[in-house]
Design goal:
This protein is of the alpha+beta class. It has a single domain, classed as Peptide Deformylase, CATH 3.90.45. Helix content is 20%, strand content 30%. The chain contains three helices and eight strands; from the N terminus they run αβββββββαβα. It has helices at residues 27-43, 133-145, 164-169, and strands at 47-49, 59-64, 75-87, 92-97, 105-112, 114-120, 126-132, 161-163. The strands form two sheets. The protein has a five-stranded antiparallel beta sheet, with helices on both faces. β4 and β5 (105-112) form a beta hairpin. The longest helix is centred in the N-terminal third of the chain and has 17 residues, at 27-43. The structure holds nickel (II) ion (NI). Residues 99-101, 141, 145 line the site of nickel (II) ion.
């Protein structure tokens, strides 16, 4: 296994619509998945999408550490292929997001608070997960990467966008959105 280089915002691999994953996974894609796990573990962060490591396929991995999400259990490291995200209602909320392709920065991004995620695992087995809070946020962020969307493109208000150190230093409460 190896730690992969992560594309930074501005690289065209992050722009396009990624192509679907087919099963059984080709050995190269299974290898990529193993490398993505190692890369995310090394880089830290909640998720990593294949286009971020120069592989424009509809595939991402994510996890939510215990205590970070709405419940204390968290989400173990999960592989999601060919995701489809459906909001369960219209409610959105602002929450902080960073991105390994935009190092050093974060923003408060509006996202649906409750979603249904359908997709396939690494074996091609279909699943349906209902997610809320931070897990729902991470999944929307990673699915966006498969459509060439980076989180700054979701911002309607840039007043909560900045460098990590400054945002931590001058913390302000986030407004409610409707
Ligand atoms: Ni990202």
């Amino acid at each position: 296994m190896s730690i992969l280089k992560i594309a930074r915002m501005g690289h065209p691999v992050l722009w396009g619509r990624a192509t679907p994953v087919e099963f059984p996974l080709k050995p190269a894609l299974a290898h990529l998945l193993a490398d993505m796990r190692e890369t995310l573990d090394d880089a830290g962060g909640a998720g990593l999408a294949a286009p971020q490591v120069f592989a424009p396929r509809r595939l991402f991995i994510y996890h939510v550490p215990p205590g970070r999400g709405d419940d204390d259990v968290g989400v173990p490291l999960t592989t999601v292929c060919n995701p489809v995200v459906t909001p369960l209602d219209e409610t959105q909320a602002l929450g902080w997001e960073g991105c390994l392709s935009i190092p050093g920065l974060r923003a408060a991004v509006p996202r649906y608070t409750r979603i249904r995620l359908t997709g396939q695992d690494a074996e091609g087995t279909p699943f349906v997960h209902e997610l809320s809070g931070f897990a729902a946020r991470v999944v929307q962020h990673e699915t966006d990467h498969l459509d060439g969307i980076m989180y700054p493109m979701r911002l309607r208000d840039f007043s909560h966008f900045g460098f990590n150190e400054e945002i931590e230093r001058f913390a302000r409460p986030l407004p409610e959105i409707s």
